Amino acid sequence: METKIKDITGTEITVTDLKEAVRQCRECLASPYLMPSGHTVGENHAYMLRQLLTLQRRKREHDRQQP
Prior knowledge:
This is NADH-quinone oxidoreductase subunit F. This protein has 67 residues and is mostly helical. The protein has helices at residues 18-27, 41-65; strands at 3-6, 12-15. A hairpin with a 5-residue loop joins strand 1 and strand 2 (12-15). The longest helix has 25 residues, at 41-65. The radius of gyration is 13 Å and the shape is elongated.
């Protein structure tokens, strides 16, 4: 499944492995490093994680409805 999300700066990111993307975002949530935008890497990953979890939930709901 390939889909797109946006990071905290609005840059579009292609997600090819939803489960792995969720794992990576969770791993980086506590990162205090600043991005050029002024946000921390952790804030950026939290922003993206919310989108990924929504996609994951929708996928599960869709899969449940399939025969």
